[in-house]
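agent> Task received from the user: take the single chain below, predict its 3D structure, and emit structure tokens. No templates, no multimer pairing.
agent> Plan: (1) validate residues, (2) run structure prediction, (3) serialize to tokens, (4) report one or two observations.
agent> Step 1 OK, no nonstandard residues flagged.
tool_call: predict_structure(input=
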Amino acid sequence: MESVEFHHARALLEWQVELGATDAICDAPLDRYEAPATLPAAPAARGATKEAARGAADQRSGPVAAQPKDAPSPVAAATAAAAAAQTLEDLRAAMAGFDPCELRLGARNMVFSAGKPGASVMIVTEMPSREEDRTGAAFPGETGAMLDLMFQAIGLGRTQERGGLYIANVLPWRAPQGRDPTQPEIAMMRPFLERHITLADPKIIVAMGNISCEALLGQRGISRLRGQWGTAVSRPVLPLYHPAYVRRNPAVKPAVWHDLLSLRSRLSDG
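)
tool_result: status=success, residues=270
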């Protein structure tokens, strides 16, 4: 049998997912037009016990993976793993090895952070873009250039030794086809985000986009929320348009400038 190169095989699988084939049913193709080789099991006798009937149903449905009753929920497991991290490197390792989040299995790279830990402003963005997933670097290319222009206008940059910016994601892995993360996925990774904020210790958080606002403030609607200060992890939070959105919609630049001035004023007051 001819072997298939990894990225070719992955592209074929992604194509099937786009067509809606998202679940593996059997190890081999099944011809559903062919008559069954055996007749289905007869129903349980009228006098059979409930336990016997349940056992027969289990045999017909095939083996089912046992779920430990005392297994913690993904959110509880994330909370425990995040709390155990004493440094940013500990947190990176804990997130990289967090089995309940299956997004990491389909992503090429984990995008943990960028900029200077301890910076005055921490930007929390949504999840890696296609280019970020490919390179493992946060905010490359034209979107990164727009980010730099936005914050350099108020004297902040990713490479500054003092003040400056620190950047992290709500989810550090790209979802398949770039879809939005689900609410369970956001809830599962929120403890890591909150611990990330605590360890990075910024004065102010900038929440870029709807997903970041949902994770930090429990709300969506960036056009309504932008410019209105909130609070998360005991720090002021400013919702702001994402640079990718600003690139696509130049008409929002006056609103972005207004919000950046509000950020500069808040930093000056602090």
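agent> Step 4: summary for the user.
The first strand starts at residue 113 and ends at 115.
agent> Done.
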